[in-house]
Prior knowledge:
The chain is α+β, with helices and mostly antiparallel strands. Helix content is 29%, strand content 50%. It has helices at residues 88-104, 110-130; strands at 2-8, 11-18, 20-25, 28-33, 39-52, 55-69, 72-77, 80-82.
Amino acid sequence: xxxxxxxxxxxxxxxxxxxxxxxxxxxxxxxxxxxxxxxxxxxxxxxxxxxxxxxxxxxxxxxxxxxxxxxxxxxxxxxxxxxxxxxxxxxxxxxxxxxxxxxxxxxxxxxxxxxxxxxxxxxxxxxxxxx
Length: 131
């Protein structure tokens, strides 16, 4: 069993035990099982999945770091939202708005493009956490 904690600046989003954890690291998906080697990794915007009693659950993470040591997975993030708390209809509308906004940004506005792409990535992570 793994002890899993997801902590954002305002709250502890998750404090539970799990059989398996999949993290969205900056280099791709990273699977964690019991007795995993010690590890510290940078997390990308994406979905963390964890298995409890053969049921997968998901949390959208908005970047951060994770540390694995002695069957404890500690995830420190800028923001996180459980897939079960995402308002799917509202988030789909946000996605549509963000996609339209990105299409209107001029090619020479590199900063604006980066910000719009990051916003899209966050919204997509929320939707993926509901699936």
